[in-house]
Structure formats: C-alpha cells, structure tokens
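Re: your question from the hallway

Yes, I did run it. Sequences:
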Amino acid sequence: MSELIGLYPSWYVPQIGSAWVMGIIGTIHVLASNTSVGAAVLFALLETRAVRDNKPEIMQYIRKYGMFLLVFSYIWGSVTGPGIWYSITVASPRGVSALIHNFVWAWASEWVFFTVEVIGVYALVYTIGKIDPRTHLKITWTFAVSSVATMVIIVGILSFMMWPGSDRWYLTGSVFDAFFNLNFAAQLAERMFLMLTSAAVVGSIIVAAIPRGNPMRREVGRTTAFLGLIGLVGGALAFMWYVATLPPNALVILSDRLPHWFGQTDFRITTFVPLAATSVIVGAYLLWVYLRPATVTVPLAAAMTVILLIAGIWPEERTRETMRKPWVAGQYVYSNQIIGRDVPGLDIQNQVPLIAKDGLLKTAAFVPADLRIVTPANRLQAGRLLAVMACSNCHSLDRDGALRPLPRLLQGTTDVAMIQGFLAGPLAHGTVPYMPKIALPADEQLALASFLAAVNAGTVDAEGRLIARTSAATHVAARQHSPIAKD
Ligand code: HEC
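Structure:
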C-alpha cells in the first residue's frame, strides 16, 4: 500500500462544474457585499453633510436606502455568504483548508467587524429621527468603518489566493507575509473604488423612488452619482495597477483571452475591452443621473443593477478566478486540490512526485477499493474517476458543458494514443502555464485517455454510463471493457 494523501472526495457537478456553482453564488454575494460597503461610505458622507448643513431631509434617503440594504444586501448577503462557505468547502476543500490555516485570526477579526456592521445597519435604520443627530452620526461612521474593515480583511485573503508575490511567505509561513502580499493594495484600491460604483447604481433605485418634486432627489441623486463616477474612474486606474501586480501565469491567461481581432496589442489595454463596454454604459448612466436626477425611473435603475451584476461583476469575478489558474490558493494548492509546491515555512510538501510514482488512484484517500488498480475491465470507470479528480475542477466532462468542456478542447478526438500523448507530454511536464502539472503513471494515463476518447466517441457519457445507441464495433469494444455502470 502506498502512502495516502488527504484528498477529499470530489464534488462533481454535471455541465457547469462546481466552479460555476461557486461563481454564481459568489457573484451575487459580491454585488450584495460591495454595495453594502459602498453604501456605508455614502451614508457617512451624506449624513455628515446633513448634520453640518442641517438638512434632516437627507436622512429620509439614508433611511430608505438602509432599509433597502437590510432587505437586499443583508438577506442576499447572508444567504450567499454561508452559500460560498458550503460550496467552496465541498468544491475545494484543500483550498479552504489552506486559507483557514493561514488566516484563522484574520477571519475571526473579520467576523467581529461583520457583527458590528450588521448591528450597525439595524441601529442606523431604526434610530433615525429617534436619537440626537450627532449620536446617530457616530453610529453611521461606526457602520462605515467596520464595513470597510471587513472588506480590507477579505481582500487580504483574496489577494493571497492569487499569489504571495515573493518567495518570502513560502519560507516564513507568516500570516503577515501572506496578508500583505504584492497584489493586496492594488486589489483593495480597485474594490474600494468599484464598490462606490455598485452603491451608486443600486442607490439610484432609491433616488428614482423619491417623488419628482422633492428637492432631495436632486441633492442625493447628484452625490450618489458623483461618488459612483469617481469609483468608476478610480477603478479603471486601479485596474492598471492591479494588472501590474499579477503573477506570470495570470498574464498569460489575460493575453490569451484577447479577442483575436486585437492582434498583439498590449494586454493592459485589451483585457480592459470586455469590461470596458459595461463600464461605459454604467458611466453614461451615472452621468445621466448626475445631470438629470429628475428623469431616472425605478425600472431603469433596477435594470442597470442587473446589467452591473451580469455584465460587470460576473465577468470580472470570472476573469479573476480564471487568471489564478492553475492554482486555487497561494500558488501552492492547485485547483484540483493537489499540492504542487513545497512550502517549507509550513512544512508542506509537493505531492506531484508521489502521484507520479504511485498514481492518483493509489494515493488519494477516497477511491473505491476496486478502482485502485487499473485493469482492462475497470479502465473506463477508473479513467472517469481520474477525470473527475484531476480535471473536473476546471473542465466540464460533458461535450456541451459550460465550463471549458474537455471533449471540445480535445477537439473530439477518439484517438487514445493522441490523448495519452498530451497527458504524458505537456501535462506531465507542467509546461502549460494555466494547467496543473499532472504526472500520472502510464496505466492511469491510459485509463484517463480511454475514458476521454470514449466520451468523444459517444460510447459513454460524462457520468460514465454506456450509451446504448452505438455502432456494433464500438459496442463490442465497450463490452470487452465490461459495462462501467449498470443502468
Ligand atoms: C487548474 C485548472 C485546470 C485543471 C485541473 C485542468 N485544466 Fe485543462 N485547461 C485549463 C485551462 C484554463 C485551459 C485553457 C482553456 C481555454 O483555452 O479555454 C485548459 C485547456 C486544456 C486543453 C486544451 C489544450 C490547451 O493546452 O489549451 C486540454 C486538452 C486540457 N485542458 C486537458 C486537461 C485534462 C485532461 C485535465 C485533467 C488531467 C486538465 N486539463 C486539468 C485548466 C485546467
């Protein structure tokens, strides 16, 4: 029996992959949480003016927006926040474990700030007009400061996921080296700016709900839109800085994602293109709210929020996740959960050599006993398990799957030897910058290649079920391998 590595069972989601499940939940969460933090800053600024210039009517807007946040951000945020934890824990248990081991106290502090934030938003909404304005202003600033603090801590963790940025952390394993990584300040700047934009777009719904004749509509509409525009311009500048702090693999993926008609233009400009259109639309909208606050309507503002979610936050978060490939955390845990580099500071060892020597089926803890050794009879089933464990975190196994479907990337080839050549070549040598180094022994390569070829040939589906309607020849071939699932 070879040495076991503590890989958890894989969570396989047909078609969209576990990555999209996390992505969809995460995107909604980002809208809810960024809007809340941005709105907290907006409230603090507006209320400071309300108190200074004695304009209590501004408080009505804050109360309305605060109530909206309670229903919108805090309900959706509270549903999707634990949703992120649940989904990442099953989709990427090793990644989560890595982050918890590094950041347990950072997260504990974040929860303290978060608790203050939640109490703060309730206190803020329900005490307006009931307590003295200066005391209320203190509550609002406490809410704003604790909201920003949660953002700062989360960005430290998120940016470490991208990479520590130097060799130092690998040697020290120190939480401070992890937290204050190269990508941290740039990502923080970008998120701080863009959260103002989120808060402004969502806030325009409340502006639109203020009766037309009310002068407050103009007053708060302009401030809200102005802050959102600052966020957009600042966010664009911070994005340039952010790109300059990315690891080499991320830059390869960024430049790879360029539309071909852009030729060899500098990636800093071209990666901006997919999101630029959204930025222009949102920018034009906010400018319009700024200039003509009287004309904004609730359906339009709500539609802009949906556009921001689907055409802004979703592609932005997806790009960030994609750029991080092949790693899920700190450039030492691969997305497929295998540890791909030594971290002497934490006594963590690279597991790729062990897998290359003994194979994944023999070393992963949760493998059915009858699949540990590849035989002609279990080859397809073993191959499917290998695909689920080694590839499905980043690739759909379905032909028309949404997440980089393997059959399409393999160009539908049914040539087992050719697929095995890919597994034995670039993949085993780790020469593809966006894919993990996956070195498997020859028998496992053959099993994986046979399964992928069989999916391409249409003789089995991604679940590993034999497909009945096959030509006589492939049917016989499949039968010789024995049916890999009996339904
Ligand atoms: C960490 C994520 C990740 C894992 C795990 C992963 N891949 Fe990939 N793979 C990618 C990305 C990203 C691409 C680029 C896809 C694109 O161009 O849209 C890719 C592309 C490919 C391609 C197309 C050729 C190329 O070089 O672009 C093949 C074939 C492929 N992967 C096979 C596999 C196989 C087989 C496995 C499992 C043994 C696997 N991949 C595991 C991320 C991954």
